[in-house]
Specification:
The chain is an alpha/beta fold and 204 residues long. The protein contains seven helices and nine strands, in the order E-H-E-E-E-H-E-E-H-E-H-E-H-H-E-H. The protein has a single domain, classed as Rossmann fold. The structure holds guanosine-5'-monophosphate (5GP).
């Protein structure tokens, strides 16, 4: 398993992570994406097994107990997590895989896979972030306020990431991310690490 091929993309809710990832994969279809588990309800248009595996809280807690999760976290009152087996499958295949997860997840992944690349997407401004959250719809004022509060904490954590890219223009941002991913795979020596620790849970 080559842990340089594990790429984490984090950034505040509404900064465009999914759109940028979609564009990265249009530019290079050899890059895979992992589907996380969550207890949050699907938004309009989201499909089970495609956007997330949507599960009940009981199921999620059972998955944790069974040691199925590589990392997990609570975000705005819901659980989100990455399946260990799914990531191992990508890495055993030698596939570059992108995880779109929050900064606590990123920290846990780096602990288990030290050569994973942590990439942080920054919105051009907080006003723009609020605008994008409102435009996305499906969230009330309190939910948006909660996400902006978490965003402020997440942006403080960006300095611990390997690279910060401002998402002003999706095409330029995706291109920059893709070049950084390729450069990372060239530059960083693989250091294979098996993870046995349990992930830390940090509540946002
Ligand atoms: P959303 O509800 O907007 O889809 O996601 C909320 C936050 O949870 C985002 O920052 C997203 O990147 C993060 N997230 C999604 N999947 C995972 C996961 O598997 N693990 C962790 N730690 N965070 C995740």
């Amino acid at each position: 398993m080559d842990d340089r091929k594990l790429i984490v993309i984090s950034g505040p809710s509404g900064c465009g992570k999914d759109t940028v990832l979609r564009r990265i994969r249009e530019l290079d279809d050899s890059i895979a994406t992992n589907v996380s588990y969550t207890t949050r309800s699907p938004r309009k248009g989201e499909v089970d097994g495609v956007n997330y595996h949507f599960v009940s809280k009981e199921q999620f807690l059972e998955n944790i107990d069974n040691g199925m999760m590589l990392e997990y976290n609570q975000y705005a009152g819901n659980y989100y997590g990455t399946s260990r087996e799914s990531i191992n499958r990508f890495l055993e295949d030698g596939t570059t895989v992108v995880l779109v997860i929050d900064v606590n997840g990123g920290r846990n992944v780096k602990k288990f896979y030290p050569n994973a690349m942590l990439l942080f997407l920054m919105p051009p401004s907080v006003d723009e972030l609020r605008r994008r959250l409102l435009q996305r719809g499906g969230a009330d004022e309190e939910t948006i306020r909660a996400r902006l509060r978490i965003a402020a904490d997440e942006m403080l954590y960006a300095e611990h990431y390997d690279l910060v890219v401002v998402n002003k223009d999706v095409d330029e941002c995706a291109q920059e991310c893709l070049e950084a991913i390729r450069a990372w795979e060239e530059k960083v020596p693989a250091n294979i690490q098996d993870q046995t620790d349990e992930p830390e849970e940090i509540k946002c």
